[in-house]
Design brief:
Mean pLDDT: 92
Low-confidence stretches: none
Oligomer: single chain
Shape: globular
Strand content: 5-15%
Distance between the termini: 14 Å
Order of helices and strands: EEHEHHHEH
Number of helices: 5
Structural class: alpha/beta
Helix content: 40-55%
Length: 121
Amino acid sequence: MAARIAYRRIYEEASPQDGQRVLVDRVWPRGMKKENAHLDEWLRDVAPSTELRRWYGHEPSRFPEFRRRYLAELRDTGHREAAGHLRDLASHDKVTLLTATKDADHSQAAVLAEWLAGDRR
């Protein structure tokens, strides 16, 4: 499934190779018009909790701990349904996870892509 999962910034040009385009941020990206996002879905409930997002603050040195905490959140009841839906999407089609974060490699989209590729339950 790894080749079927990609992630990138929502501000990049949409591509036919994206497959299903899924925004995985809790808040709408600043300055992005909905008609320009070319989204198939917006899964707010798969995003990290507000508390975790604020703690992380996109500090790369905190990424390993953010990753650990976020993977734990994906198993809680608040995230389980959305995570399962995302897993189902990825099992049927190519999926591109979208985030507004400037450093996509240190984001929830990167963690989700890894998680989906490993199909961690």
